[in-house]
Specification:
Elements lengths: L2 E5 L5 E6 L7 E7 L2 E4 L17 E3 L11 E7 L2 E2 L11 E4 L5 E5 L4 E10 L4 E5 L3 E2 L10 H10 L2 E5 L2 E6 L2 E9 L3
Antiparallel strand pairs: 1-2, 2-3, 3-4, 4-5, 6-7, 6-8, 6-15, 8-9, 9-10, 10-11, 10-12, 13-14, 14-15
Amino acid sequence: EHGRFEWDKTGGKIRLINADASDRAGNWFRVGENRLFMLDIEGNPIESNLPAELFVFQKIDLDHVITEKYWKLIELNGKSVAPAKEGQREAHFILKNEDNRVTGNTGCNNLMGTYELSGSSEDRGIRFSPMVTTRMACIGIDYEQEYLNVFEDCEAYTVQNDTLTLNKEEVQLARFAAVYIR
């Protein structure tokens, strides 16, 4: 999390130095385009029977990654959604990388389905399969069907910092805030 780094003489490797280390020992990495390749203690490629991808660290643009995040519903069709009351579930969803699954909750019922992302970094498309839900009686959750309709209708998304917006054409259907569990 904290520390220093230094370049080798060739400018192709860096050594990450722990801020608490009294000596200059640290991990060596070969620098690639948006990647770091872990090297052994002497700065050489690691020779191992393990898959090579275990030793590659890929840059992730956290501001634009929407998968594997807990997205809490904060606005639906232009209206703010009140926070869940004590003991109630909040409307949310998570886009899982594995099998492109969607899991979540409507504020009452669990939901699940699949999704597909498409487009470029400027033109971000998203489509959802029809959602399957549990069928519990919901008291005080009057927006459940409206929330489920968002998944049927949306065609694209935008993301800025920790806010995800699902859109149909130029219309904002719903906004979500990323929730990070510490």
